[in-house]
Amino acid sequence: MPDLSLLLQPDRGQTARSIQLIDAKGFESWLAAQPPRHRAAATAQKLAPVGYASAILPGDGPDDWSVVSVVANVDRLSPWCLARLAETLPEGTYRLEGRDPGPAAYGWLTAQYKFDRYRKDDRAQGPRVLLTGDPARVDDTVRVANATYRIRDLVNLGANDLGPAELEAEADAIAKTHGATLTVTRGDAIAQGYGMIWAVGKAAGKGREPRLVEIEWGNPDHPRVAIVGKGVCFDSGGLDIKPASGMRLMKKDMGGAAHALALADLIMASRLPVRLHMLVPAVENAISGEATRPGDVMRSRKGLTVENSNTDAEGRLILGDALTKAGESAPELVIDFATLTGAARVALGTDLQALFANDDTLASELLGAAEAEADPMWRLPLYDPYEELLKSDVADVVQAAEVPWGGALTAALFLRKFVPHGAQWAHLDIFCWNGSAKPGRPKGGESAGLRAVWKVLKDRYAGG
User: Fold this and answer.
1) Best exposed site among 37, 39, 56, 400 by fewest CB in 10 Å?
2) Which keywords does this chain's UniProt record carry (predicted)?
């Protein structure tokens, strides 16, 4: 991972090229006030009052030039308003004219992300450095951008290079960095104590066996917070096998685990005063003679028996056991991230993440943070009458309703059965993938809900 602190630095009067931001509504008056050579340069480069538009303005010498860029609102910069510049400007150092980048610094950093593990980028440019007059925000911005880079890297890896063992190794490295405790449960202990994790992952081959990965860190006297992430390193659908089109992106089905790992690292690096418990159930939903069958009945860690109504509804099973384990330490707050249902995508599309919460205050905090951070989510209901759809004829419950509607809701209702009593709980059903590139957000793996959750945690436990 590159050192992102080199790309965002406190402004100490260093030599830097100027970036002037123009409000789209004031573009015409700005243009009219420019000297002829600037108007000519802007016109030649087709500068217009539209988002991400920019131009190079000449100075007095051959190497003397500055940048002008159009933004929607100069007084309220978005995280992405400088991202196109960070992708396209020549390498060098830049400062905004007369203002601080604020939230736009995040997009400046994430715009320079490259995933080059599998091929050389012959178009690679040198770094574009942004100066800020608010040095107090540098560390947090860099840490959040680092978390995004980690998520993108993990999600972009092929499943041949990222299985349960590699997720464990990633957790081990993070734990060692911060002096945290790593616990890994596998083998007979998983088979006997975590029946749903075992049922999902037991068909995978040697070296890719199911496991529960946990990190604990912090002062035991601090509020206990559990972060849980779905770690299905590849999802074939099991015996209810996915079609080829549905399987194509299933390397990203561990996106929830990537979020949990990145958020855990962010919490510990920031020394947030909480007692952290991170849990990642790591499996591969594979097909072999050992695979769980439709109609098989599992005994969960909580003791509930669960009839497997669809082997492609595996994520909620492993999360159920992990949520039960989290509850054994009586956390006050539980947040899980999971690439859980296609139904959430049908309802909300790929950019808007589905939020479920058992507490209105927590939901309001998350929605407010999502708005403030431009990290969008939408609350969906935990609609109690749909519990009826999870009844089984032979077990305590089925994990997936056998009707073609309300799939995100019934998945969340299933998870709720394993949430510790008395804890505030939020479930984020995320997509964590950019199907096409946008400024600051290249095609591929992406963070989803991370910045909103991080803001809530900071506001609660560190006073913002």
Assistant:
1) 37
2) Aminopeptidase, Hydrolase, Manganese, Protease
DSSP for residue 384: G
pLDDT in tens, 103-113: 999 999 999 99
Residues 113 and 150 in one domain: no
Instruction: Clarify whether residues 193 and 125 are in a common domain.
Output: no
Q: Residue 307: CB partners within 8 Å, gap ≥ 6?
A: 295, 296, 297, 392, 393, 394, 395, 397, 398, 399
| DSSP label of 293 | P
CB atoms within 10 A of CB 342: 14
Active site residues: 242, 316
114 and 154 together in one domain: no
Rounded Cα–Cα distance for residues 61 and 65 (Å) = 8
Amino acid at 159: A
Domain of residue 66, residue span: 4-133
Helix residue spans in 157-214 (DSSP H): 164-178, 188-193, 195-201
Mean pLDDT throughout 218-223?
98
Domain count for the chain, please give it. Answer: 2
CATH code where residue 238 lies: 3.40.630.10
* Residue 403: count of CB within 10 angstroms of its CB: 10
Final residue of a structural domain among 133, 156, 187: 133
- For the stretch 43-102, pLDDT in tens is 999 999 998 999 999 998 888 999 999 999 999 999 999 999 999 999 999 999 999 999
pTM of the model: 0.97
DSSP state at residue 90: P
Residue with the two structure tokens 């790593």: 182
Task: For residues 416 and 318, state if they share a domain.
Answer: yes
pLDDT of residue 123: 67
Answer yes or no: do 42 and 183 share one domain. no
d(CA 443, CA 440): 10
User: What would the mean pLDDT of 377-395 be, rounded to a whole number?
Assistant: 98
Q: What is the pLDDT of residues 298-340, one digit of tens each?
A: 999 999 999 999 999 999 999 999 999 999 999 999 999 999 9
Report residue 383: phi and psi, to 5°: -85, 105
Neighbours of 50 (CB within 10 A): 11
